[in-house]
Specification:
3 helices, 87 residues
């Protein structure tokens, strides 16, 4: 609703980036009809908020460009101990 179904039509957007958003449903249906019989269509019905949490916990990133860097994920963020560091 807020983003013109970009979560379920995003592949069509990348294949046809100049296509207006109001044609995305039609394009997605055509892509599905073409790819599904070949076993190449993959749709994940996970709700966006669950997918976002899964990505935050499992996607890896590098937080700097200098020196030796290691991949990190949301699970690598230190949790607060509740103590004030100024003490």
């Amino acid at each position: 609703f807020f983003h013109h179904k970009i979560g379920s039509t995003h592949v069509a957007h990348h294949l046809f980036h100049e296509m207006p958003f109001y044609r995305a449903d039609e394009a997605t249906a055509a892509i599905k009809a073409f790819l599904e019989p070949k076993g190449l269509y993959n749709y994940d019905p996970t709700p966006w908020y669950k997918a976002m949490w899964r990505i935050a916990n499992t996607c890896h990133y590098v937080d700097d460009f200098n020196g030796i860097q290691y991949f990190k994920s949301f699970n690598d963020v230190p949790l607060s101990t509740g103590k004030n560091k100024a003490e």
